[in-house]
Design goal:
single chain, alpha/beta, Immunoglobulin-like, Aminopeptidase, 2 domains, 6-stranded mixed β-sheet, 8 helices, 32% helix, disordered N terminus, signal, EC 3.5.1.28, N-acetylmuramoyl-L-alanine amidase, hydrolase, N-acetylmuramoyl_amidase_3
């Protein structure tokens, strides 16, 4: 009966949907600030918005006049005045209000051409802070949406986040492989650790611009233990764990992107290893297994994996189909199973993506090419957000 009670508690934890309270802007702890000097033009700027809870958001630029637009889902800006925002006098004008059902919009007129250098949301309990960093650019490097009307029509669909997550917004963990004293594969003076870190940082920026919160297992050339990577993701409430690699094999043996998923035949061994090597309260989000025996911990982890494994496979389908559509070179067997340590987490859909093999001349050239990386980043952003919307629809159908 005790096992049954724990499994029932687990089911309730997985299926519970977060409350949809209206998020309120807190002008006193929000601001627009200069982050440097504008020697030959407008200065770099940073917009910080503190909200009473995390929300889905998107940030982009439009022209005529040049404006930053930030859309917030489930936020109510009534009762606050743009002119009361600290730093409002740094720009020609700021406006905000409701613009369509369930969404509010903030429009910041800018003193010149800018680019969105980064955008991200840091969540707390219960507050969140959205930060948009703007860097001035020359006119030739200003890439806004074609017009304000186009911005209204062609915005990417707001991400519908999986309702089973521990946070309201979608949280993705990016795991650049290796690092520190472990450079990974090496070829032609390049290391796997450096290449995948660069790619992960570019992917983080693109995901955050679509309103996805991102946690990085490492953001510099440091070494992080394999089990600690999963722990970092779990503590951040990640609903998807994506490990990034670019391995090396003898010339001619492998080329093209490859996706690895957990080998279901390894479930028993992984559960035993996790039970021995992790703290018990770190095995499953939402359930404290401290004091339980290995058999019970293993049984509960196997139970949870019956939900996460199909979701990992669903993400792999989204990713392979979009890579094929975008002309990304794929390995002859693009999806494979493996017992990699970073795929062991039973409560989090996980995948390991070999971006290519740096032992292959073409793959190595691709990884060093900003245009190829931008195309691959686009593929991953569309895969992640498409998978998240599909997960939300599936969750609704299951509840019926």
């Amino acid at each position: 009966m005790r096992w049954l009670a724990l499994i029932l508690a687990l089911c309730l934890t997985v299926s519970a949907a977060p409350a949809q309270e209206v998020a309120r802007l807190e002008p006193g702890s929000s601001s627009l600030t200069r982050t440097g000097r504008g020697w030959w033009g407008p200065p770099p700027l940073e917009l910080q918005l503190t909200l009473s809870r995390p929300v889905a958001y998107r940030a982009y630029l439009v022209a005529d006049p040049i404006r930053l637009v930030v859309d917030l889902k489930g936020a109510d800006l009534s009762g606050t005045r743009p002119e009361d925002l600290p730093g409002a006098d740094l720009v020609p004008a700021i406006r905000w209000g409701r613009f369509q059902r369930g969404w509010s919009r903030i429009v910041v007129e800018l003193p010149g051409p800018y680019r969105v250098a980064s955008a991200g949301q840091r969540t707390g309990d219960p507050q969140s802070r959205i930060t948009v960093a703007l860097r001035p650019v020359g006119t030739a490097d200003f890439y806004p949406r074609p017009s304000a009307a186009t911005a209204l029509r062609d915005l990417p669909s707001p991400v519908q986040f999986p309702e089973s997550g521990s946070r309201e917004g979608l949280v993705v963990a990016l795991d650049p492989g290796h690092g520190g004293f472990d450079p990974g594969a090496q070829s032609d003076g390049q290391t796997e650790a450096d290449l995948v870190l660069t790619f992960a940082q570019e992917l983080r920026t693109a995901l955050e611009a679509r309103g996805v919160s991102v946690v990085m297992t490492r953001d510099d050339d440091s070494f992080v233990r394999l089990e600690d990577r999963m722990t970092l993701a779990r503590e951040a409430g990640a609903q998807l764990f994506l490990s990034l690699h670019a391995d090396a094999l003898p010339t001619g043996q492998a080329a093209g992107a490859t996706i690895y998923l957990w080998d279901p035949d390894s479930d028993g061994r992984a559960a035993q290893q996790l039970a021995l090597r992790h703290d018990r309260d770190d095995l499953l989000a939402g359930i404290d297994l401290a004091g339980e025996d290995d058999a019970l911990a293993a049984a509960l982890m196997d139970f949870v994996r019956t939900d996460t494994q199909p979701r990992s496979e669903n993400f792999a389908r989204f990713l392979t189909s979009r890579m094929a559509l975008m002309g990304i070179g794929l390995h002859g067997r693009p999806v494979q199973d493996a017992a990699f340590s970073v795929l062991k987490s039973p409560d989090m859909p996980s995948a390991l993506l070999e971006l290519g093999f740096i032992s292959d001349d073409q793959d190595r050239a691709n990884l060093g090419d900003p245009l190829w990386r931008a195309r691959m980043v686009q593929v991953l952003v569309e895969s992640v957000t498409g998978w998240a919307r599909d997960e939300a629809v599936r969750a609704t159908m299951l509840r019926r």
